[in-house]
Structure formats: structure tokens, C-alpha cells
Write a structure and sequence with these properties.
- The protein has 779 residues and is an alpha+beta fold.
- 32% of the residues lie in helices and 18% in strands.
- It has 23 helices and 27 strands.
- The strands form 9 sheets. It has a 5-stranded antiparallel beta sheet, sandwiched between helices. Strands 21-27-26-23-24 form a 5-stranded mixed beta sheet, with no helix packed on it. A 3-stranded mixed beta sheet has the order 2-1-5, with no helix packed on it.
- Helix 3 packs across helix 9, helix 5 packs across helix 6 and helix 9 crosses helix 10.
- The N and C termini lie far apart (99 Å).
- The mean pLDDT is 87.
Length: 779
């Protein structure tokens, strides 16, 4: 033995070195066989419905599927059909090569194939021309290289993912999804054997309209099945499937839903993932798409040919439906443009956020009376859409009726932030400098996209917190950005809910109509018609117009976009009858008080129109009503009398004291107000109203000292004596309304900082008392 080793040591050493070299080649890291390929991506909705399968970069349908996720029937059928000696050769089968060479080149017979699975993979991987002897030798060398570098598992897996399956379909994964609408792990035996025979003859005829397989494909599959039965047991139920029609879904029949939505993800995500779960709800997408198509068909005669809609779940900020245009394939309307990304003039759809900022900055509350009269704002003189003025109008009515003058006035009072700064904070892109717009920004002078606008309306329902829209389920939301207080957001939504919706057949048929907070918008030149709003857990924006910017008198928000908006709302409500508004708690530090609706101020006994409003203590502007004032009138002359009064010859009358500009509006409208009588001839003011209230606590000119560490437990009680006819007392600190009490009831106030404060109490007769106190907080 020793002598043999000595004599053969050179050969043995060579054999050892060869073995080491082969092991080194195998163990040395190699690029995965999938590296040169690009792949398709499957996009699913949130219910795992396939929306779309995209092409790879080379315009092929291709998916990489691990061997473990491929049905054993496919693998065993492939080995039986293509290469029974796959696990025993080193990339080539010498006997098959000799047989094929003799039949092709020596006897002059038909060409015969002798390529192993490895050789076929080498041809596809390196794109070899194997129709010549030189090309075939190159293929053999490459096949041996593959066997040296990769395992049988990797080679078999790669072959199944490189193989052509007809048309522009490559890989068993793509073929299985397209032809049979299932992954390759779930195919049955007839489907598996069909996939096996396709790569050898990928041009087998299949009827593109019906998907029925041609006779040649069925024959090839059935012949393989006969060989299969010789090796494997087949249940009679499975065998019966081979007698049924073989139908292969064609690529043209693949889902192609929400094209603008998917295109936006493709452009923004740049992901290599082969499977992406989106936020889209395909059912909602179809409901909205159907309503858009029906609406366009009904209104085409008016020149309305295009629309964009976006629906967002406000609780998660996930986009649930997106219609970029009325018809993606209609070039006449530039259908492939995603209208939800287009920057357009928003008309009046931004006004709710002006009022919300006004609420936050103490400019108004929902029932504050604003002036809808001709007004010059420096060099800017806006007009209303109807070119008329309504005089005194509540903030709520001014908003829902889209009055321009009050909105511009509110915007002129905003500071830190201004309306422009708010839009910048809300991530409205591509705005010019603030000076470029001035106050015209209020009336749609800037441009926003429907996606930006729906984010703003969703922010209102989320207590004033802004978050970006989500298109992918796996995406994580960033921390919310606070743009408004919860109180201002709540009150703005409440104001918009008072906008009366148009009544139609569908809404009348529904037993329960979901509350909707909505606003319309019409751009200058009738280029854009908008309706935006919230309902249930959703925020939605509807836009109508032309992508080329051409105008149409039919593009009026309330007449064009609003019907489509509510058609969609009602359709969703009909499909999902349990749709309800979220039970959001009432924001803290929000109160509801009695007011005089005519003036929007605190209620007095003289007011003829009583109501309620929300307000934020310490922020919302609340003052005594001064419109309705009592005057003692002489019974005979009808003029004001001076004190002291004789109640047998005079009586009390209530008059309306309107500013001159509003009185002029009333007169122009044909409803002139009676001028109050003059009391200038009286040396003293009328004091027939009884005694004003008297503050009993806190004490006048007293310094109150509190420990800052126990600030929450340190309170000051406000109390006052009042006349017998008083029903309500209103308390103010530095002119900020704190609360309302009944006579002889106390109101607690917690000071938050040191300083001198003016305490004022007002009764419902308009009489008042005040005093100053000093607060010192110390550690």
C-alpha cells in the first residue's frame, strides 16, 4: 500500500489539488443567478385583491419564485419531460449529445435536442446562440461552469425562473399567476404539466379572446400525463380533470385597476419588491369609478368630460380610492394625467382653514357677526361670486355660503401664522412668495392639488394634526404635526356640517344619511369645480375641469362637483350601511353658551333672536350685545325721555343700533331699519335698568400669592351680587370670556402666570362691574 502511494503520489497529489480546487470554486461566493434579471411587481389592495402586475424593465412578465414555493408536480414533471438524469450528470448528458449529433449531422435526419436543464439555463443566462457547432460547444462549457459554481437546487430554481412560457411571459411564477391566477405552489396536476410543456414550445396556440388552449398544447400535456402515470399514482378525480377544457387567462385579461394610483407608487417608491400591499380598497375604487363614469355620461352634453377623485381614511391617512381621470385610456382628455397631483386654483375650498385660524387666534367664534359689505383692503377690493352683499352675517353662514368679503376680512386679521404661513406649514408645495398673492390667496389665488387638499380636510377631523397620505400598507406614519387646536378643528367641522346638502332621489331613499361636512369651490374663469369634505371616517375631494385649463360655465362647484360628491357619498353609504361617524370626544376647554344671534354677542333680555355657540374660554371673542338697546319713549311725542321717568306717560321700547355701513345695506335691500331716537338732549344716561352687579370675590386691589408647584390646586372664586331680575352673569379676565354662572353661584379660575388682571362681570341686562387683582406665583 505504501509502495503504491509512493509510486502514485504525483497523481494522488494532482487529484487532491483538483478536489480542493473544485471545492474552492463551489465555496467561493458567486453572484446569484437572479442578478442579471429584473422582475415584475404585483400590487394588491388592502384585502389582498390583485390590482395590477407590472412588466419588468425589459417588458417581460417575470417573477422570481424560490424552488420551495413551486409545486412538486411541476418539478417532477419537468425532470420527467426534460432531464431524467439531472441529478446524476455534470451539466451535459454525453449519450444524448452523441445521439443528437448523429441524428442531426451524420444521418441527415430531423434536428434532435440534447440539452440538459443546465445547458438550457446556460443558453438563457448568457444569451448564447446555440444553432452552430461553436455555439453548442460554448453552451457545453458554460453548463459545466454552472455545475461547478452552483448547486443542483440553484440550477433547477434558476431554470424555472428563466424559462419562457409564451407571449412575453417568463418564469413559472409569472406564468402561473397570469394563466391560472394562482401561485405555482397551488396549481393542480393538469395545470402543472401544462406549465412543464410550455417552455419547449412557448408558441403553442392559445385563443387570445377565450383563453382556450390549442390542440397541440393539449396533446403535448396529455402525452406527458401518460408518461406520468407510468411513474406516479394518479387519483381518478385528478385524472378526470384532463378531459376538461384547458383555459389559460391571457395577459390582456389581467387586472389593471387604479392605474394612476399604481403609477404614482411606482414613480415615488422605487422598490425592488415583487409584491406590494397598498392601502387601496378595490371595492371603494370600483364604487367611485362607476359613479364617475355615470356622471360623465349624463353630463357630457354640458361639456363635462373629466373628473378626479381621492378618498382617504382619516384615521390612518391611507388612500382608499384614487381616480386620476375619467378614463385612463382616453387621449382626448389626456386621460393618463393624474389629476389628483395637478396643481389647480382651489376656489373657496380653502376658506374653512381661514375661519379655523380665526377661531384659534381669537378673531371669531362660529356665531360672530361679520360684515358682508363693500370693503377696500388697501388696493384690493374683492367681490362676492353673486356680486351682491348680505350685510351682517354669522361666521358659519359666511363660510357655508362662501361669502368672499368676510373671509378676506378674517384673513386680514390673521397673524402668526398668517394664512400663507399656514399653507406652507401644511406642506402645500410650489407656492410663490407671500407678497405675490396678498389677500387674493383667500379666494383661490394660489394653487393646490386634490391630494394636498384632502390632507387638509383630514387634518380637521384629526383634531388639527396633519400627517402625510399613505399609499403602502407597510409604511409607518411620522409624528403628527399640529396646525390647529382641537377646539378650532372641531368648531370648523361643526360649521361645515350645517351646510345643507342637495336632496336627490338616492338620498331620500336612504333611511340613515351619514353627516357630511363639506365645502365647494369655483376657480376664476370657471376652470375648476370643487367639492371637498368629510363623512364617516373618510375625507374626499372631487374635482371637475379640463387638464388643458380651458374654462366652461358649467364648472361651478355647487352645480357640477357637488352632485358627483354626494352621489359617491350615498353609494358608499348604500354599500356600507353601517358607515358611521367616529365617536371622537369633545375637545377639552370647549364650552357652549347662550348668545344673541343677531349680534353674535352675549345674550341680554332685550335680544329677540336667541341661540347658542361654541367658544374657547380665554380665546374666543365674547362681548355684551349692543345691537338691541332699551330706550324710554314718551307716549305722546314718541321721543326719548330723560330721567327721572314717569312710567304713566312713557314706556320702554327696544331699538336696533346698527353701524351705518350695515344700515345702508338693509336700506339697499328694501328692509330699512328704524332709526333709534336720540338721547343727546339728556344730561345723564338712562338708568332705569336697575342696579349693576357688584363683585364680592375676588377682593379689590388684593395681592394673591400661590405656590407654582401646587398651581393646579390653587383657585380663585368669582362671585357677585346682582339685581333680582338677573338670570345670568358673564365673567371676563382681561376681556377674555371665562364662563357663565347663575346669580349667587361661584366660578373658579386658576391663574397660570403672575401679573395684574382686570376682572369684569356682566349681567344679562348689559350692566357690569370690574376690579383689578394682582397674582404672584412663587416656588
Amino acid at each position: 500500500m505504501i509502495r503504491f502511494i509512493i509510486r502514485q503520489q504525483n497523481k494522488l497529489m494532482a487529484l487532491l489539488l483538483l478536489t480542493i480546487a473544485l471545492v474552492a470554486i463551489r465555496l467561493y461566493p458567486h453572484a446569484p443567478l437572479s442578478e442579471p434579471l429584473t422582475f415584475s411587481t404585483r400590487y394588491y389592495d388592502n384585502n389582498n385583491q390583485l390590482i395590477r402586475m407590472t412588466l419588468a424593465n425589459d417588458d417581460r412578465y417575470r417573477l422570481w419564485t424560490p424552488l420551495e414555493d413551486i409545486s412538486p408536480d411541476i418539478v417532477n414533471g419537468l425532470l420527467l419531460h426534460e432531464d431524467q438524469w439531472f441529478y446524476y450528470h455534470v451539466g451535459i448528458n454525453p449519450f444524448s449529445l452523441m445521439r443528437a449529433f448523429g441524428a442531426t449531422y451524420l444521418t441527415g435526419g430531423n434536428r434532435q435536442g440534447a440539452s440538459t436543464i443546465t445547458m438550457q439555463l446556460a443558453r438563457m443566462h448568457w444569451r448564447l446562440n446555440t444553432k452552430t457547432i461553436g455555439g453548442k460547444l460554448h453552451q457545453i462549457a458554460r453548463a459545466i461552469q454552472l455545475e461547478l459554481m452552483y448547486s443542483k437546487h440553484d440550477i433547477l430554481e434558476a431554470y424555472l425562473n428563466y424559462a419562457p412560457f409564451g407571449r412575453n411571459i417568463e418564469s413559472v411564477g409569472a406564468a402561473s399567476f397570469i394563466y391560472f391566477n394562482k401561485p405555482p405552489s397551488q396549481v393542480n396536476l393538469p395545470e402543472a404539466l401544462t406549465l412543464v410543456v410550455l417552455p419547449q414550445s412557448p408558441t403553442y396556440r392559445v385563443d387570445r379572446k377565450t383563453g382556450f388552449a390549442g390542440k397541440a398544447l393539449v396533446k403535448a400535456r396529455n402525452q406527458l400525463f401518460e408518461r406520468w402515470q407510468e411513474k406516479y399514482f394518479v387519483d381518478s378525480n385528478i385524472a378526470a380533470l384532463f378531459s376538461q377544457k384547458l383555459v389559460l387567462r391571457q395577459p390582456e385579461r389581467m387586472p389593471f385597476g387604479a392605474p394612476h394610483f399604481i403609477n404614482q407608487i411606482i414613480q415615488q417608491q422605487h422598490s425592488d419588491a415583487q409584491e406590494i400591499k397598498t392601502t387601496l380598497d378595490n371595492n371603494l375604487q370600483k364604487i367611485i369609478s362607476r359613479q364617475v363614469n355615470l356622471f360623465i355620461e349624463r353630463n357630457r352634453i354640458k361639456g363635462i368630460n373629466n373628473a378626479s377623485v381621492i378618498l382617504v381614511d382619516t384615521q390612518t391617512m391611507k388612500v382608499k380610492a384614487l381616480i386620476g381621470s375619467a378614463n385612463y385610456f382616453d387621449n382626448s382628455i389626456q386621460g393618463q394625467v393624474n389629476g389628483t397631483l395637478a396643481k389647480r386654483s382651489p376656489g373657496s375650498t380653502l376658506k374653512p382653514f381661514i375661519y379655523a385660524l380665526g377661531i384659534d387666534q381669537g378673531v371669531l367664534h362660529p356665531r360672530t357677526i361679520l360684515k358682508d359689505v363693500a370693503t377696500d383692503f388697501g388696493s384690493y377690493t374683492p367681490e362676492n361670486f353673486d356680486r351682491n352683499f348680505r350685510g351682517p352675517i354669522s361666521a358659519t353662514d359666511a363660510l357655508i355660503h362662501s361669502r368672499n368679503i368676510p373671509a378676506v376680512w378674517v384673513a386680514s386679521k390673521l397673524n402668526n401664522p398668517t394664512f400663507y404661513q399656514f399653507l406652507i406649514d401644511a406642506h402645500i408645495q410650489k407656492l410663490a412668495d407671500e407678497a405675490h398673492y396678498g389677500l387674493s390667496l383667500v379666494l383661490g389665488g394660489g394653487e393646490v392639488s386634490p391630494q394636498e387638499l384632502v390632507g387638509l380636510y383630514a387634518m380637521l377631523t384629526n383634531e388639527g394634526r396633519w400627517q402625510p397620505l399613505q399609499f403602502i400598507e407597510s409604511a409607518t406614519l411620522p409624528e403628527p404635526q399640529k396646525l390647529l387646536s382641537p377646539q378650532a378643528a372641531f368648531m370648523t367641522i361643526d360649521m361645515l356640517k350645517q351646510n345643507t346638502r342637495p336632496q336627490d332621489v338616492l338620498s331620500k331613499m336612504q333611511k340613515k344619511v351619514v353627516p357630511v361636512a363639506w365645502k365647494t369651490g369655483t376657480s376664476w374663469g370657471f376652470r375648476d369645480a370643487w367639492t371637498a369634505g368629510t363623512f364617516g371616517n373618510y375625507a374626499m375631494v372631487v374635482w371637475l375641469g379640463n387638464f388643458d385649463g380651458s374654462g366652461n360655465n358649467a364648472f361651478v362647484g355647487v352645480d357640477a362637483a357637488t352632485p358627483l360628491f354626494f352621489n359617491i357619498v350615498d353609494s358608499i353609504n348604500a354599500y356600507y350601511p353601517n358607515l358611521r361617524e367616529s365617536n371622537r370626544p369633545l375637545p377639552p376647554n370647549l364650552k357652549r353658551i347662550d348668545i344673541c344671534l343677531t349680534s353674535g354677542n352675549l345674550l341680554t333680555q332685550w335680544c329677540k333672536a336667541k341661540g347658542k355657540t361654541w367658544f374657547i374660554p380665554g380665546v374666543s371673542p365674547i362681548n355684551p350685545d349692543t345691537i338691541f338697546r332699551p330706550v324710554m319713549i314718551d307716549n305722546q311725542t314718541g321721543k326719548a325721555v330723560c330721567p327721572p321717568y314717569d312710567f304713566t306717560t312713557s314706556h320702554l321700547a327696544v331699538f336696533e343700533y346698527w353701524p351705518s355701513d350695515l344700515a345702508a345695506v338693509f336700506a339697499k335691500a328694501g328692509i330699512p331699519k328704524k332709526s333709534p331716537p336720540s338721547t343727546k338732549h339728556c344730561s345723564s344716561s338712562q338708568n332705569y335698568l336697575g342696579d349693576p352687579p357688584k363683585i364680592t370675590s375676588p377682593l379689590k386691589n388684593v395681592v394673591y400669592q400661590f405656590r407654582a408647584a401646587k398651581q393646579k390646586n390653587e383657585q380663585i372664586s368669582f362671585t357677585a351680587n346682582s339685581d333680582g331680575d338677573v338670570k345670568s352673569l358673564y365673567w371676563f379676565v382681561d376681556n377674555n370670556f371665562i364662563g357663565q354662572t347663575e346669580p349667587r353661584k361661584a366660578l373658579s379660575w386658576i391663574p397660570t402666570q403672575s401679573g395684574t388682571f382686570k376682572i369684569l362681570v356682566l349681567d344679562d341686562m348689559g350692566r357690569s362691574d370690574s376690579r383689578n387683582i394682582k397674582i404672584e406665583l412663587f416656588d
